[in-house]
Design brief:
Structural class: alpha/beta
Strand content: 5-15%
CATH superfamily: 5'-nuclease
Largest sheet: 5 strands, parallel
Number of strands: 5
Distance between the termini: 33 Å
Length: 150
Amino acid sequence: MGNSERRWSGVFKEDKKRLGHASEKVGVMKVVDTDIFVDFFSGVSQAASFLQNNADDIFFAAITKAELLAGRVCNDPLERERVFHVLSQFEKIPIYNPLVQVVGDFRRKYGIEIPDAIVAACAFVIGGTLITRNVQDFEKIKEIRVEKPY
């Protein structure tokens, strides 16, 4: 079993079809905001295409996992497990001391909410691009690159 096959073996069948196999193309690290994953779980085809086409470059903040698991859909054990399976295909950025310092700086400097500051700090710390539909929430943060994927 190749690396790509191992990476995708735990995804539910319908998600596996929508996500496809990890891309062989190497690109810029992308920190994906919660809204893109919400779109994916809601069946938005553009979100599935984005995740599929950028799978090897995708990271997400630990807060994103918490936000997804806090959703009412996770009252259903099968849907909760689906969230775990899909997220396991990507790299999670844990909350640790140097990151927390940047979070505090972004919150104080830009007046953004803590969850958004965590996601922005993740992009800053790994030198990645923040991927979100909520560009307006992050565009004032000059230290990071922000892109709307679709």
